[in-house]
Amino acid sequence: MQVTDAVLARRSVRDFLPDPISNDTIAGLLSTASRAPSGGNLQPWRIWVVNGDTMADFRAHMADAAPSSTIEYDVYPPKLWDPYRTRRYTVGEQMYATIGIEREDKAGRLQQFARNMDFFGAPAAVFCFIDRNMGPPQWSDLGMFLQTFMLLAEEAGWQTCAQEAWSAAHEQVRSFTGAPEELMLFCGVAIGKANRDHPINSLEAERAPLDEFATFL
After folding, report:
1. Burial (0-12, 13-18, 19+ Cβ within 10 Å), 45
2. How far, in Å, CA of 212 to CA of 145, rounded?
3. What residues does each domain of the chain span?
4. Which numeric CATH code is attached to 3-75+119-204?
5. Do residues 142 and 128 make contact, with C-beta atoms less than 8 angstroms apart?
6. pLDDT in the model for residue 1
7. What does the alpha-carbon distance between residue 206 and residue 113 come to, in Å, rounded to a whole number?
8. Tens of pLDDT along 145-194?
């Protein structure tokens, strides 16, 4: 697979098949992804993997653990402005439309959102942490690492979903993983085989045309 093919094929998958993925496969993807750019070679990413029996234990832990009392960070800026606000709400409406959930169906929307906390049925996932003292450049490094990981997974025949929603469950995740307090949970990434028959996986989020975000001088 060419890099372009992987970029165009990658989707945020929200329904997975139970097909298992080995820890060796995940380890290979993570090791190769660590070649992602990193300013000063700080490599600020810290990863915990849940898979197999550990995933089953984690799901049981989530069912029993008290909800987090705080969130790690605001996923979006407050009072989001256009064009970003419109882009966010448009893709949300398009996603819910694929599974027939209307705007007024708040219970249905909450039920679908809750599937984040089950990794959408994926057999494995990684949790990505970063030191709280790191700044925006290191967060950029973290994003490049995650993108590299997801493209490598696509190349290898696995699909992913990066989930910032886990920032609202950081206390449950920390109590299970044992990650130290000086690390902030950024996201989880579900990994497995996409259920191609589920309509939610038909969504292809729109991207702005080049002339909206690029200026050639």
Report:
1. buried
2. 26
3. 3-75+119-204
4. 3.40.109.10
5. yes
6. 85
7. 21
8. 999 999 999 999 999 999 999 999 999 999 999 999 999 999 999 999 99
